Amino acid sequence: MTTNAPSTETVGLYGADSSPDEQRAALREGRAPVAVYGMGKIGLPLALVYGETTGAVTGVDVDPERVAALADGNSPFDHEPGVSGLLSELVADGRFTSTTDGEAAAATARVHVIVVPTVIDGDDDPDLGALEAVTETVRSGLDPGDAVFVESTVPPGTCAEVIQPILTAGDRESGEFGLAHTPERTASGRALRDIRGSYPKVVGGVDAESGRVAALVYDEVSDNEVVRTDSARTAACVKLFEGVYRDVNIALANELATLTDAFGVDVIEAIEAANTQPYCDILTPGAGVGGHCIPYYPYFLLDGVADPAPLIRTARSVNELMPGFVVETLVDGLATDGPVEGATVALFGVAYRAGVPEARASPAIDVAHRLDRLGVTVLAVDPILDELPEMPAERVGVDEITERDVDAAALVTAHEEFGHLDWRAFECEGPDGSRRGITVVDGRQALDLSETAHSVYTVGRGWH
């Protein structure tokens, strides 16, 4: 379904002669229509918040099936609280429409919001292909006075060095429209709450007027304060600094966890006690770091940087090695009972985070590949994913896994369902009549198997 142009004349906000109050009124009344490009797990909630604020939003996506579902008021993101209900309400009221015709949406909109994925390629270089393609679409309908906001996470300088040259191609000039980086600060499972104002909103324009317009718009969209940086480049760095901070902090926790045996202590207990000091905030170690954010941010930040930046690069390396640590520990336990090759391992959790049906950069994928190279048969269990990502594993239901003969298990993602599993079902009777367990590596400190016969290694706690 394609949006219809508002009956009243639309207005641009960039370089406008009207007062800020008049511009705010135009935005709230739908006289500055909005197009949001990318109806993913961030783009759709963002478009809905824009819709409840302005009443004139078009969601653009290249997937016709997704657009058709949205037009019927059906959300593809059931794990996002409130999204389904708000979508149905806005579609019914005509405040949100959806289309695959990006050029038509761009021709109508006065505010353009880009929220498409940015990833890295096989050489760890940023891949901005989707962003560049959408920018071309926006350019096709760009009018003087329009404003373009980039919510996608990008390397510093992307707005000025990549997006602006595309938008100004032909007879357009940079002073005709606004361009700002307005990085999303949204976590899966709480998108609407975060967009509406869990945290201050950061904005930065390629020029002062772009920054002003971005601040004005997001002051209406968000209930929290708007932090305006001096440039789009700075705004990009803010987002990347946040992610790299977590990557470095998690790497510290992970490295400490790998030294559990050397220290002879429960590292988790030590971290918890250390964190009672206000200036100490060590995060929790685990089987690895996945998702669409943290694994990529260091590479975005360092794109084009000649300096070695050893801390950032080392932290990323430490976190990328954690799946290997899980496999090495699992192999150590398996080796005590016989050859590793030919063994069967149950891999619990493929989604990158508990409760979130998404597997991008999940450490479970690396764990499965490493086990496969050792000649191990991998059985993957994940109750919330519709399908497994490409990985060498047989999918087994959570209600079927206890019927399979497994030699070991690794918990990579702590879905709630795994805590309710009958772990005793993996035990067997030994020659002397005693109960014999399997090797279990708990990568998330999520299992209490003290009443079983299993040999358990908890990352950060050691064998018990």
The neighbouring-strand order within the major sheet is 3-2-1-4-7-8-9-10
User: What low-confidence regions span 5 or more consecutive residues with pLDDT below 50?
Assistant: 1-7
Strand content: 5-15%
Please give the alpha-carbon distance between the first and last residues: 58 Å
Helix content: 25-40%
Summarize the biggest pleated sheet: 8 strands, mixed
Mean pLDDT metric: 95
Query: What is the global morphology?
Result: elongated
**Which class best fits the helix and strand makeup?**
alpha/beta
The tally of strands reads: 19
Radius of gyration from CA coordinates:
25 Å
The helix count comes to: 17
Features:
464 residues; 8-stranded mixed beta sheet; disordered N terminus; 7-stranded mixed beta sheet; 17 helices; alpha/beta
Structure in a nutshell:
The chain is α/β, with parallel strands linked by helices. It has helices spanning 20-28, 43-54, 64-71, 83-93, 102-108, 129-140, 158-167, 191-198, 208-221, 232-258, 260-263, 267-274, 297-301, 310-320, 322-335, 363-373, 416-419, and strands at residues 34-37, 57-60, 96-99, 111-114, 119-120, 126-127, 147-150, 178-181, 201-205, 226-228, 344-348, 377-381, 394-395, 408-411, 428-429, 435-436, 439-442, 455-458, 462-463. The strands form four sheets. Strands 3-2-1-4-7-8-9-10 form an eight-stranded mixed beta sheet, sandwiched between helices. A seven-stranded mixed beta sheet has the order 13-12-11-14-17-18-19, with helices on one face.
